[in-house]
Amino acid sequence: MSEKTSQLHEAQAIMSEIYERLNVSEDIRSRLHQPRRIHQAGLPVRMDNGSLKVFPAWRVQYDDTRGPAKGGIRFHPDVCEDEVATLSFWMTLKCAVVDLPFGGAKGGVQVDPKTLSRLELERLSRSYIRAFYDVIGPDRDIPAPDVNTNEKVMGWMADEYAEIARRQLPAIITGKPLGMGGSAGRIAATGRGALNVLDAWVERKDKKPEELTVAVQGFGNAGYNFARLAKEAGYKIVAISDSQGGIYLKEGLEPMPIWEHKNETRKLSGMVYCDDTVCNVDSVETISTDDLLGLEVDVLVLAALENAITDKNAKKVKAKIILEIANGPVTPAADALLQERGIVVIPDVLANAGGVIVSYLEWVQNRTGDYLSEEVINERLAARIENAAKNCFQCAHREDVSLRVSAYMQGMERLAKAMESRGTQHYFEGDVLT
Ligand code: NAD
Question: How confident is the model at residue 280 (pLDDT cuts 50, 70, 90)?
Answer without folding.
Answer: very low
